[in-house]
């Protein structure tokens, strides 16, 4: 996906990621929430919700934000959105796994797996693919 650094929401999220890197999660969370509040398009809402999810204190709240990010991503008509779907479904699957709901976890891990062919063949893509496979293995053992 193309992320235009001239976009105010993308800039706020980039600043938030910088604050994460500097070890200031509260400032990062504030920037991500500000990005969410200022978002006006489905793309901006998907992007900011994805980052807000990372800073939730409960699995239930993280799931809510991850599902919000996914719902806005699925509204995008851009084919390149398929590159981010594995990560979004992986995050949701992990939330369900953490809430001891292996059936929903597996459903979302399988959804993530169905989009892994759209991932880049690099460290990021391989990390997501491994996360999906590990999640499937973990919840499949509990069934």
> Taking all residues together, what is the mean pLDDT?
94
Percent helix range: over 70%
Q: Care to count the β-strands?
A: 0
- Reading the helices and strands in chain order gives HHHHHHH
Largest sheet: none
Q: Which geometry do the CA atoms define?
A: globular
Topology-level CATH name: Serine Threonine Protein Phosphatase 5, Tetratricopeptide repeat
- Ranges where pLDDT stays below 50 over 5 or more residues in a row are none
Q: Please count the helical segments.
A: 7
Assigned CATH superfamily: Tetratricopeptide repeat domain
At the first level of CATH, what is the class? Mainly Alpha
Q: Over all CA atoms, what is the radius of gyration?
A: 15 Å
Number of domains: 1
Structural class by SSE content: mainly alpha
**Strand percentage:** under 5%
Helix-strand blueprint:
Elements: H1 8-21, H2 25-38, H3 42-53, H4 59-75, H5 85-98, H6 102-114, H7 123-142
Helix pairs in contact: 1-2, 1-3, 2-3, 3-4, 4-5, 5-6, 5-7, 6-7
